[in-house]
Design goal:
This protein is of the alpha/beta class and about 350 residues long. It has nine helices and twelve strands.
Length: about 350
């Protein structure tokens, strides 16, 4: 039964029994009442995993390095990048659900206060909601309607749950289904419903739209926009830039476990001349409607990262200085970039 409890503690809102000395009802969550404009601030975040090779020899494999992002109240930040760039790991680090062999350094703040493991346990599934990629986050032994209702704090929980299901074209009998009875698209809608019905101040949507019909995709994106209009901060993790640009205010571009650029959506136009980082420009120009110009090479694996700038081996602007050390992030033209050559 331990694995079932593990899933529920990480997705289904509950009163964390492990938080000693704090009352659930009176605990300071650092929520909307603080008046802070910045809801989430991640600075110089690095995540490493302990691995064993050649018997008992330990090795630290860094999968996220010097990552920086921030999301304001009422803002949608899209996090884009190829598979393996660290998008989902960032979400798990914020929620405090990384595996036990993970080591985290840097700072993660929610409403101006450091997100300790204790605060993560209290906020997870309440003020901070996750729309995960996998249906494995659903309790396999609990009907999906009941799982969605656990996140409803106000009003008639059953009526709210059924209204949301109706919006997502889920028939009334679906609320009595178990996760194994759901199709891929139905499971995705259930996962999104858990965030829609919550009172979360920060919603992390990890690839929320694959498997949905185009009309439902548009509707889902509209719900995230409604949430941001109510003051909720939304992090939309996706590999699809076009989807991101439909609702995002800013786009954070990830590469090989770090942030290379954060830019307003207006910069993603034309041939990408307004973008700052060479990878962001190349990613934009690789889209079919923008010339379909692929980038030579491939994103490096975490166990084979180059010295210095992580994009340097594929960058036409790279100099010998780029291979010495990773450039620091800096503000540039209403955005942020990690490149010494950006202007």
């Amino acid at each position: 039964m331990r694995w079932i409890k593990w899933i529920k503690n990480r997705f289904i809102p509950s009163k964390p029994e492990s938080v000693v000395g704090l009352s659930w009802e009176s605990a300071d969550f650092g929520g909307a009442e603080t008046g802070s404009k910045t809801v989430l601030e991640v600075e110089d975040l690095s995540v490493s995993f302990v691995q064993y090779e050649k018997g008992l020899q330990q090795k630290q494999m860094k999968v996220i390095s010097s990552l920086d992002i921030a999301i304001n109240r009422g803002e949608i930040l899209a996090v884009v990048g190829s598979s393996g760039s660290g998008k989902s790991l960032l979400a798990h680090a914020i929620l405090g659900i990384l595996p036990e062999n993970a080591s985290v350094t840097g700072s993660i703040k929610y409403n101006g206060k450091e997100l300790t493991l204790q605060r993560q346990a209290m906020l997870r599934g309440n003020e901070i909601a996750l729309v995960p990629q996998s249906v494995n986050y659903l309790d396999p032994l609990m009907q999906v309607g009941a799982q969605v209702r656990t996140g409803i704090k106000n009003g008639d929980a059953l009526a709210v749950q059924r209204e949301v299901f109706d919006r997502y074209q889920l028939k009334p009998e679906v609320d009595r289904f178990y996760p194994f009875q759901l199709s891929g698209g139905m499971a995705r809608r259930i996962l999104i419903s858990t965030a829609i019905v919550s009172d979360a101040q920060l919603v992390i949507a990890d690839e929320p739209t694959p498997g949905l019909d185009p009309e439902v995709v548009e509707e889902t994106l509209g719900y995230f926009r409604e949430m941001s209009a109510r003051g909720c901060a939304v992090m939309l993790i996706t590999h699809d830039i076009e989807t991101a640009l439909k609702i995002a205010d800013k786009v954070a571009v990830f590469y090989a476990g770090t942030t290379v650029e954060v830019a307003p959506i207006e910069n993603f136009s034309g041939d990408g001349e307004a973008l700052r980082h060479p990878y962001s420009k190349a990613l934009w120009r690789a889209l079919p409607q923008n010339g379909f110009m692929p980038i030579p090479g491939a994103q490096p694996m975490p166990n084979n990262l180059p010295e210095g700038c992580l994009f340097a081996p594929r960058c036409s602007m790279a100099t010998s200085e780029c291979s010495i050390k990773q450039p620091k992030v800096r503000k540039l033209r209403d955005g942020m970039v990690r490149c010494g050559h950006a202007t």
